[in-house]
Design a protein that fits this description.
With 402 residues, the chain is an alpha/beta fold. 26% of the residues lie in helices and 29% in strands.
């Protein structure tokens, strides 16, 4: 296991780094990243995927991680504290531990979920999602590319698909002859993979779809919306493949509309409705339009509106404008709510912190001059654990208006 992580010849010294005092403190406190500008000394050039040992200013062992010369995140931490042997057994134990944490989370009605959530499960820069008997391995750092064979050996299932972050796709193709969407094991169905979530059937485009093929992280919020939808007219804005819409329909909504700018997404939403005809008799309305503009200009109201836009702040420099956009969107959506209407507003922008987003939504509610009640706030789902600030991205607030 991970033979590529050791030096090519006995004469090649192990990769050793020293980092700034601030970075030392950060690593000791559990942060899993060491940035390139925090590296003060390095004994030699390192290759992608090498094990890098980090020492403090007194030459004491501090941590060990995966080296990536292509990324601003120069080392992704695997272990902190006393020296440890990073070998096949070590990684096998880490894998079993991550999988084992999910064993009690799901029953037979759900076979689509996250198995490994990157740094938060001790696998920095690597995500593994399950869709029935198909597993999707997504990597965000070139450090894993030399070790795909060894990682693959740990993954169960009939089929394993590789997904690659955009920033490493060219390097992966030229240096390792692998591409985004490549099947590493088994055969991918010609159509999308069908999986179960709380007894509902959904399709996942594991080869070309966003993320690993589906937005698994919103499972618990979808279930909440199902419980709020009986007898209501529901608008699912930024609907993508219609997850919230399908749950609302099963929950007894009197009408459900999916709103998205992408016809491809709306077609997927309709297919997901069709997959669940045995439990859904409702007709599904699809609206192709820019959700920001449509909600602002619409001449119709709803009893429940779900706002789940894509990340509006992918970098810190976009945060201010993202906050303004969220405020406008929430304010316009409140105007589209009937009496006793419910707004479900979510954000997946990591640079917009949960407290900031919740306060923004509350201020927008107050500015509407309507009486409102805060029903609930939620964060990451259990299979998407969070152990460091940058991994804490998902937040959702539920507001009911008189």
């Amino acid at each position: 296991m991970l033979n590529n992580l050791v030096p090519a010849t006995p004469a090649k010294p192990n990769l050793r780094l020293r980092i700034t005092a601030a970075a030392q403190t950060s690593v000791r406190n559990g942060h899993p990243w060491v940035y390139a500008d925090s590296v003060r000394e390095q004994n030699r050039e390192g290759g992608a995927g090498e094990i890098a040992a980090i020492f403090d200013r007194n030459d004491r062992f501090l941590a060990v991680g995966l080296f990536d010369p292509l990324s601003p995140i120069r080392v992704r931490i695997l272990h902190v504290g006393k020296p440890a042997k990073i070998d096949s057994s070590w990684f096998e134990d880490k894998f079993k531990s991550a999988i084992g944490r999910r064993d009690a989370m799901f029953d037979r009605s759900t076979n689509g979920y996250r198995c490994i959530n990157g740094e938060n499960d001790g696998w920095p820069g690597l995500v593994l999602d399950r869709y029935a008997e198909t597993y999707v391995l997504k990597i965000y750092t070139a450090a894993w590319l030399p070790n795909l064979t060894e990682v693959l050996a740990l993954i169960p299932g009939e089929c394993v698909v590789l997904r690659l972050s955009r920033n490493i796709q060219e390097f992966a193709k030229t240096q390792f002859n692998v591409v985004d969407g490549q099947t590493l094991r088994g055969d991918v169905p010609n159509a999308a993979v069908i999986f179960l979530e709380n007894g509902l059937r959904f399709e996942a485009d594991v080869v070309r779809g966003q993320k690993t093929g589906f937005f698994l992280d919103q499972r618990e919020n979808r279930r909440n919306v199902e419980g709020l939808s009986r007898g209501k007219s529901v608008l699912n804005a930024f609907s993508f493949s219609g997850g919230f819409s399908v749950y609302a329909a099963r929950g007894g909504a009197k009408s459900v509309a999916s709103l998205d700018i992408s016809q491809h997404a709306l077609a997927s939403a309709q297919r997901n409705f069709d997959l669940n005809k045995d439990v859904i008799a409702l007709t599904h309305e699809t609206i192709q339009a820019d959700a920001f503009a449509w909600i602002k200009e619409a001449k119709r109201n709803f009893d429940l509106i779900v706002l789940d836009p894509p990340s509006l702040a992918k970098r810190e420099s976009e945060k201010v404008e993202a906050m303004r956009a969220y405020a406008r969107l929430i304010g316009n959506a409140i105007e589209r709510l009937n009496k006793n209407g419910i707004l479900v507003a979510a954000s997946c922008s990591a640079h917009v912190h949960a407290d900031e987003f919740f306060q923004l939504a509350r201020r927008a509610a107050e500015a509407s001059a309507r009486k409102f009640e805060e029903l609930e706030t939620t964060r990451n789902a259990a299979d998407h654990p969070v152990t460091f600030p940058e991994g804490d991205y998902l937040k959702c607030i539920y507001l009911k208006f008189s």
